[in-house]
User: What shape does this take?
Amino acid sequence: MRRPWRVAVVGGGIAGLAAAVRLRDRAPAGTEITVYEQSGALGGKLRTGELAGQPVEFGAESFLMRDPTGAESAAVALARRLGLAEKIVHPTVGQAALVIDGGLRPIPGGTLVGVPGDLDRVATVARPAADADTDGGRPLVGPDADVSVGALVRSRFGDEVVERLVDPMLGGVYAGRADDLSLVTTMPALARTARVEHTLVGAVRAAQAAAPRAPGAPVFGTLAGGLSTLVEAAVTASGATVRRDAAVRELTATDTGWRLTVGPTRDPEFVDVDAVVLAVPARPAARLLAGPAPAVAAGLGALDYASVALVTMALPQPRLPELSGFLVPSTEGLLIKAATFFTTKWGHLRQPDGLALVRASVGRYGEEAHLQRPDADLAATVHRELSAVLGTSLPAPVDGHVQRWGGALPQYAPGHADRLGAARAALRAAHPTLVLAGAGYDGVGIPVCVRSGETAAEEIITALGGSAR
Assistant: This one.
């Protein structure tokens, strides 16, 4: 009688945990799943903490409710699978602003990650180049081409639209710059329509039409009680053995699968498994792949990452605008690149005593030196800049927290999707029971990471002989 499958999930972020849940749901009964997490905490960038006695996110804040096709997002589907659907809540204030010339201006509607589908609607924050978006008789982007978002938008709408709209929007998500980021990976819906449409306005409108949203339907959601509840529920549902503080230092191919070298070099543990989901960032993955797949490792190791710090403050009865927050173009010369007014944006977090939770994001790609400042210095600078942008002297915080995320956000250069496709094809050909999952490969955001983990689990099941359910 065949023994149960043994599957290792290396990395306890949401991609790895989603893979573990899918394995439990679809793999044969008795499959042994073990999650190895190098740190002491599961969930990766999903981390709910506490400030002034209130729950607050120290990492990812929310998830998209719909996927690019308009269907329920993978994050919502996972929450439903874990019995958390009734805990999903939505923003009560959705309007955000941009800092332009030192003051706040509402982000105009009708854009796709800042790229306008109606040039007149963005005139309050940026002046599009006159008559640059002309029909040249051919699609904007070739059938197999990838370009940077900034290059495409600058050529059609000019510098100001990039610097005042697109760059801060992408910077809020990736901490990167539009001129460096891949259109195909960061804006796949626009990339698809840009291969058909002859103008950028037409491409934006076509992308928006391809994923219609019902009027009033919420775009974002989070979980009452914090996103760490998603992590905890996934661990429980997976039935996996969880190994915290367990660094996997080496992967070696065996005749029947893989041998993991776990733990300190002086006292290593060797674990044999049938398959591995490698759900860690690209550079750690490259180190583990250096032996079994050196060419793949070399490609993955080239992916760069940005570091950020999240500075959260509890402010007693501040005067805040009725906004969810604001984004800051790099041309404004501020350390802050984004701010979120948690207790304004999320009605379930509002406090009767008027205590406000405000979080600012600090750190752009290439400017990591700013993050070398001590926590107290970062917090004081954030407080001062928030006061200046809001035009009011904010009260001193009664509590605060600085969360540093080193190497947190992948910087997908043009051609990333092709490079990743080649890496995965090479792994499937040589090592079909070793699969990559996570933000370093498929994109940032909770739904993308969940889907990445689930897809990896399905590949493992297929490689091992198919589902028994």
